[in-house]
Known about the structure:
657 residues, 7-stranded mixed beta barrel
Amino acid sequence: MAKTMVEQVMEAHLVSGELVPGAEVGLKIDHTLTQDATGTLTYLEFEAMGVDRAQPEVAVSYVDHNLLQTDYRNADDHRFLRSIAARYGLYFSPAGNGICHQVHLERFSVPGKTLIGSDSHTPTGGGAGMLAFGAGGLDVALALAGQPFYLVMPEVVGINLTGRFSPWVSAKDVILELLRRLTVKGGFGKILEYFGPALRNLSVPERATIANMGAELGATTSIFPSDAQTKKFMSLQGRVDDWRPLKVRGKADYAEIHQLDLSQLDPLIACPSSPDKVVPVRQIEGLAVEQVLIGSCANSSWRDLMVVSRALKGRQVHPRVSLEINPGSRQVLENLALAGGLLPLLEAGARIMPPGCWGCIGMGQAPPTNAVSVRTFTRNFPGRSGTRDDKVYLATPETAVAAAIFGEIADPRRLGPYPRITQPRYFLVDGRHLMPPPDSGEEEEVIRGPNIVPFPHLSPLPDTWQGKIWLKAGDNVTTDDILPAGSYILPLRSNLPAISQHAFSRLDPNFIKRVQDQTALVEDDKILKEGAVVGGENYGQGSSREHAALAPRFLGIRVKLVQSFARIHLANLINFGILPLTFENPEDYHSLQEDQVLELPEVRERLLKGDERLPLYVLGPDEEREKEIWVKVDYLSERQRRMLALGGALNLARGEE
Ligand code: MIC
Ligand code: SF4
């Protein structure tokens, strides 16, 4: 059997472990990226490691998320990131350059290289044949310090793409179809490897759209071959020398194979409020729409905006609709202008934002109350837009522009002849705004604003742990539920004590008050100083933000007991010394309630010994053991067990005992 592309790239980067699904592997990392909302904490962690210069071949710090500067805080973060890049030898991409994934694809992607980024959509690079992972900031900080990236070896799943898109169907429909079939947890523990005859006609930006939203499936990452299309993309970027081939030479042994015929796809749309609630657009046609947003790292390439522009040419945006365009990068915007794509957008009544994430993470662009908002974005988790009870639908640029023109959800085929967009023969490439690292950073001063608070010391795990269940949640809890983003909370990303006050506010607006009341009441009572959260399946899906692990930890949550975890969140919990436990018998979930007191006897010793299952007791009013439950920790490596015992990865990296 031939090697999968994943095996080929992993073998070339393997530092430790074996490529056996379920085993821990350590990989050498060639590129790192951060964005501003996760980057400040990442660099505070990196600084705490005492390394003088960033070690990867390419390390880039992007500013694309926290673009509203309503006071000094986001602006201070941007300045801090610029100074850190100069001090430690990173590229710096300032506000206005574009979304990290789009810019990285354009300016830095190299087939066959490894990339980790402190953002869950880092797999976008898989569109250009990179093996690219979303990770917590601490994992990125460790890679910056030259350490390997550790992950549990996933299964490699093949996706065979055949056929050609029919008019008004495009790349986002492929991933929406996979979300419809497999759901938001269908990709867990898997890497999706794409192949098949359809790739001949699929450009790198289209592949990147598909790879990007593998994150919504919960997949570890996604990868496409590097072929003639990739070479064409890289020559348009003026980087043909960076091109190298990557393909399977023969028949690979995939764990499973999914068939997808592009010609059979209809325009699809994900309904509120989960990316897997996918239906054909025609099923919900006629629903009045008030906002249409086009952009995000999934759909803001030159092709995406050109198709919108062509569809709008000579037409007007419906008076009920606010159409807003968020270009993926300065390069996209420049080339859109060059190809005559900007004027039809302006004439039709669209609002053009500077390149960046904007409303995708609730940084402005919140929809009105009760309004339907159609977006080409990645996620529509409840309230993420900034408006409570929002109604956000996710679709292709084609379906989005149809909604903007008709003022209702409409099958884009109603728009008539399809303006197929082919890649231009020439692309304007201007790298002046990406700041390369200076030769030496020793003289550079790191500039910190008052909102940038140093990283706290995390306490080690006690021998026996006791604590209360502070929250019981259901299935598919997102990191937006655990720690919301949006324009009010994002400026607190560099200030852990402040941002912690918003933990779980979506699930229970009284959470903080409840925790504070309890801990204040019984200052000296060890039982109530720490807490646990109980959850269902796919706990922690969504963003890579490590704040969603760290803020609860800061408040005293040391234990998370759930039916299953999402990958990046699990890694983040371990990095910050939170015990990630799963039920041996998932039914036990139903027997636990908020305010019950739990005990994990001799948990530290059992963990370090390598026990795969642990006893957990529910305690009665006099600390008597009322009920025994068995919980699992069989997925933890020896390295992770040490981290948990010490209270987190930084304590391990600092050599604490
Ligand atoms: C997201 O799309 O949820 C984000 C905002 O890009 C996050 C990162 C963050 O929370 O800063 C992600 O996807 O990892
Ligand atoms: Fe930015 Fe949205 Fe992409 Fe996250 S998903 S990186 S917020 S555009």
